[in-house]
Amino acid sequence: MRAEDLIGTWWLEAYRSIGDDGGVHEGPLGADPCGLLFYAADGHMSVSMMRSPGTGPGFMGYAGTWELSGRQVIHRVLVSSHDYLVGTRQRRDAELADDRLTLHAVAPAASGRDGRRLLRWRRMTGVGR
To answer: Which domain of life is it from (predicted)?
Structure first.
């Protein structure tokens, strides 16, 4: 995987929590979350995610810079909807297959939520979902 392979816009297909037992569960934004992830060639990034419209409140997002280091994407958070993320480096194990990007993350300790997260993204090539 090369950094150039990640540049562009990605639509969130799945956001799941993975328990200590390896079981996959609904993530913090419900069963059918919506989201956009942008990776720019100049090293900037932005992610915005929410529950599906009409399913209740829930939003999280941040923006900053990014880099690829081996098979990890590192997000340096400059602004966020969650104070505890500002100034952190969020590391994501990354897998790329065709137009699907899977990012594996560990929930930050300051979030009060332990565990691992799996986020699956699909490259957007047009307008809308």
So the answer is: Bacteria
Give per-residue pLDDT as tens, 55-105.
777 899 999 999 999 999 999 999 999 999 999 999 999 999 999 999 998
Distance CA 40, CA 6 (A): 9
Task: Tell me if 84 sits within 8 A of 110, measured CB to CB.
Answer: yes
Assigned token pair, 100: 């699907």
Handedness of CA 106, 119, 49, 34 (dihedral sign): negative
pTM of the model: 0.86
Cα–Cα distance, 34 to 5 (Å, whole number): 22
